[in-house]
């Protein structure tokens, strides 16, 4: 039982680190201007495709970010 809990904790730590580093790989768009509203913003998506050939998304601070 203790081994199962230990393995579960290790798996959670690895998953959290992978998510953390994937967010660090995201870059802000320099082309997109204005407030990015909505999860799937067409202008943000187009800016990221043209600038980095990546997928665009809106952050909680209404900025446009580009990810792989």
TrEMBL record:
Q: Where is the Knottins-like domain?
A: 26-67
Annotated keywords: Disulfide bond, Signal
Domain of life the protein comes from = Eukaryota
Leader sequence segment: 1-25
Q: What is this protein called?
A: Knottins-like domain-containing protein
- Organism field: Meloidogyne graminicola
């Amino acid at each position: 039982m203790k081994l199962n809990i230990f393995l579960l904790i290790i798996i959670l730590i690895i998953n959290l680190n992978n998510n953390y580093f994937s967010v660090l790989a995201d870059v802000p768009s320099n082309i997109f201007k204005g407030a990015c509203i909505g999860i799937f913003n067409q202008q943000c998506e187009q800016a990221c495709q043209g600038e980095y050939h990546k997928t665009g998304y809106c952050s909680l601070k209404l900025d446009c970010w580009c990810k792989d």
